[in-house]
């Protein structure tokens, strides 16, 4: 029985060590690991002490009020700016929704179009991914097959990193052979009793911070049982199997399944702050960080404090600069400065980088004092303005000065993005189909390119699955009532519920019922015009059941597709925009496939950072890594070649975009 382990049902035996006594798989004799300490895994092993140290240096709210932000893109410089070589790992994280970790190779280009960008002399691909949403994990794993995808919370991920450091110190860095030598002898001497089970292999690791037994769990593969019988067992219950644990930890460290402090070059993330949402009636304006819904920003900074990367990039909504006098934005800046990082804060508009949506977001750069602080890329496209920056942070907009006259490309519109896509019905069951036509614009030719043409090497030299097919061109299926309503919305620019029978626009642009028209009802007996549409924003809104048009843009791609209080109807079809149409508005290439129910796919697209924005930021990151920018100025003008990367195959003639020929709305 050498090399086996054990499994307990009513009792069990560990062939690595000795006998297990317990009831059920989760029971057994407990054996504690050695106590953790800084002497075992470095200065950041405990995590809490380090966090307490940098938190003690964060200025108070009173200090913030007495020290207003400096004009221009916010920047704090600390120390020299000598450039060091790029480390082996590039960690990219979105703390609540998405975490991406990339590893450097030897190829001559740096590209991860959703995360890093394109810059000469360095190459990166997604190495790890962590996401709370299981469907997002499926999408990440499918599109990044070399990635270690983890489905867990950010705080549990951080706890696991700390425990992993302890395990690596015990089983990798120390000489454990002498301590475990007697285990194999004991293993051969004992025989299995009835109802004893054997551990085949440990195949996974996670941290459970909510269960009855908090701590590290291993996923156990049992000898003689199929994958459906694999179970998660707490590490204490496997204390009699150190050989199996050592085997897993040594192999895991060799494969780099988790990063240790010193492994990481860059941490990127977008910690959500749902506590500041306008939909939250109980927002804590005095102390926003005491709201549990805002704690993810604290977790994000704790991860930075533990792994201590060279660079940090945080993305968030503009509300962090609006709510409570910008409390959360100032907190994030202060955290980085307290950890001795240089810091910059800027607001970027997605439409300025080649998309038909506005979408303003906050991006915070951080860099160690020994590194060059990355700049922000200046716009390359004109944009249809749909809102402004908070007054107190207006100087943090990433834009050209009013006195400058840059040569920008023409703003992209909806017709540029998806006028080539085939007509689909309200109910479209197929998530893979043929295009059925040729692209009509340069954007459409570009977005249809394959992985290699876009410098995406997630599949190595292989072309990757599904290329050349149209994926996820499915709309959210409207219920029968909403479908009847949508079919009666006119096919014209600006159409919405106000064009339905029985609605009249009165004084001050407020809708009211037309007294001369009897109220119209649907086949279900419900009214054609719902009461919520009439009362939305006190009757002044144009959004309910609003129809988009080809020469327009959208304010922001969101995570839902219901037409009740947003303009999301297709210009000429009786449906909402499909997942693929929304994905194009975010800049996702057509080969990028999503998983999960249709509503979950909309969520994944709406939560993402716009691809062209990420790519432009990645280019500036590459410039800083290579020492090709000095970091003294906050803004960087992208070279002319940047906007044409990968577009040699998409030389297109100018095409006038209007309503596609033959498109007729369903009546």
From TrEMBL:
Keyword Ubl conjugation among UniProt keywords: no
- Limits of the Chromo domain: 197-251
What are the GO MF terms of this UniProt record? Answer: DNA (cytosine-5-)-methyltransferase activity; DNA binding
Q: Name one Pfam family in it.
A: Chromo
Please provide, in alphabetical order, the Gene Ontology terms of the cellular component aspect for this entry: nucleus
Q: Where in the cell is it found?
A: Nucleus
In terms of Gene3D superfamilies, this protein maps to: DNA Methylase, subunit A, domain 2, Vaccinia Virus protein VP39
Gly residues compositional bias, start-end: 1-11
Q: Which UniProt keywords apply?
A: DNA-binding, Methyltransferase, Nucleus, S-adenosyl-L-methionine, Transferase
Question: What family is it from?
Answer: Belongs to the class I-like SAM-binding methyltransferase superfamily. C5-methyltransferase family.
Q: What is this protein called?
A: DNA (cytosine-5-)-methyltransferase
Q: Which organism is it from?
A: Zea mays
From the broadest rank down, the organism's phylogenetic lineage runs: Eukaryota, Viridiplantae, Streptophyta, Embryophyta, Tracheophyta
């Amino acid at each position: 029985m050498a090399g086996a382990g054990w499994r307990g049902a009513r009792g069990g035996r560990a062939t690595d060590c000795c006998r297990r006594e317990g009831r059920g798989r989760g029971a057994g004799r407990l054996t504690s690991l050695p106590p953790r300490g800084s002497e075992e895994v470095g200065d950041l092993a405990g995590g809490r002490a380090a966090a307490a140290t940098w938190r003690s240096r964060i200025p108070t709210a009173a200090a913030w009020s007495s020290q207003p932000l400096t004009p221009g893109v916010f920047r704090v410089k600390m120390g020299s700016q000598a450039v060091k070589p790029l480390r082996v790992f590039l960690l990219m994280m979105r703390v609540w929704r998405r975490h991406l970790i990339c590893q450097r190779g030897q190829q001559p280009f740096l590209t991860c179009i959703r995360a890093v960008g394109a810059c000469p002399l360095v190459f990166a691909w997604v190495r790890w991914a962590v996401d709370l949403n299981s469907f997002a994990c499926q999408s990440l794993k499918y599109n990044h097959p070399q990635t270690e995808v983890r489905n867990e919370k950010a705080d549990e991920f951080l706890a696991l990193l700390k425990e992993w450091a302890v395990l690596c110190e015990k089983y990798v860095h120390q000489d454990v052979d002498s301590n475990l030598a007697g285990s194999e002898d004991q293993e051969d001497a004992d025989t299995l009793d009835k109802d004893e089970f054997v551990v085949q292999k440990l195949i996974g690791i996670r941290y459970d911070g909510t269960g009855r037994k908090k701590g590290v769990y291993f996923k156990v593969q049992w000898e003689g049982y199929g994958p459906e019988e694999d179970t998660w067992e707490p590490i204490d219950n496997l204390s009699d199997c150190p050989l199996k644990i050592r085997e897993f930890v040594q192999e895991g460290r060799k494969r780099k399944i988790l990063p240790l402090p010193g492994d990481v070059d860059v941490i990127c993330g977008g910690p959500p702050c749902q506590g500041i949402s306008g939909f939250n009636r109980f927002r804590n304006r005095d102390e926003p960080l005491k709201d549990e819904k805002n704690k993810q920003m604290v977790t994000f900074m704790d991860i930075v404090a533990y792994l201590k990367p060279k660079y940090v990039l945080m993305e968030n909504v503009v509300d962090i600069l609006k709510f409570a006098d910008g409390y959360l934005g100032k907190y994030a800046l202060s955290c980085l400065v307290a950890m001795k990082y240089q810091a910059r804060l800027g607001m970027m508009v997605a439409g300025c980088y080649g998309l038909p949506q506005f979408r303003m977001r906050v991006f915070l750069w951080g860099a160690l004092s020994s590194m060059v602080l990355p700049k922000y890329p200046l716009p390359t496209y004109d944009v249809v303005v749909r809102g402004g920056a908070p007054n107190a942070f207006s100087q943090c907009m990433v834009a050209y000065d009013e006195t400058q006259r840059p040569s920008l490309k023409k703003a992209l519109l909806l017709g540029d993005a998806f006028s080539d896509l085939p007509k689909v019905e309200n109910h479209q069951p197929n998530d893979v189909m043929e295009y059925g036509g040729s692209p009509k614009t340069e954007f459409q030719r570009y977005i249809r390119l394959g992985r290699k043409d876009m410098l995406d090497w997630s599949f190595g030299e292989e072309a990757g699955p599904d290329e050349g097919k149209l994926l996820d061109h499915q709309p959210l299926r409207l219920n029968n009532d909403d479908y009847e309503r949508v079919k009666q919305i006119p096919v014209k620019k600006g159409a919405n519920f106000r064009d339905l029978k029985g609605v009249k626009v009165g004084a001050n642009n407020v809708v009211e019922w037309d007294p001369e028209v009897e109220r119209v009802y649907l086949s279900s007996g419900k009214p054609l015009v719902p009461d919520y549409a009439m009362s939305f924003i006190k009757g002044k809104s144009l959004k309910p059941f609003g129809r988009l048009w080809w020469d327009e843009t959208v304010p922001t791609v969101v995570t839902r597709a219901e037409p009740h209080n947003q303009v999301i109807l297709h210009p000429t079809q009786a449906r909402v925009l499909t997942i693929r149409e929304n994905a194009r508005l975010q800049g996702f290439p057509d080969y990028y496939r999503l998983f999960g129910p249709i509503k979950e796919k909309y969520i994944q697209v709406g939560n993402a950072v716009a691809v062209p924005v990420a790519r432009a930021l990645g280019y500036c990151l590459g410039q800083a890594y290579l020492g090709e920018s000095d970091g003294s100025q906050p803004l960087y003008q992208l070279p002319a070649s940047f906007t044409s990367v990968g577009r040699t195959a998409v030389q297109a003639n100018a095409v006038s975009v209007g309503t596609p020929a033959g498109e007729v709305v369903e009546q």
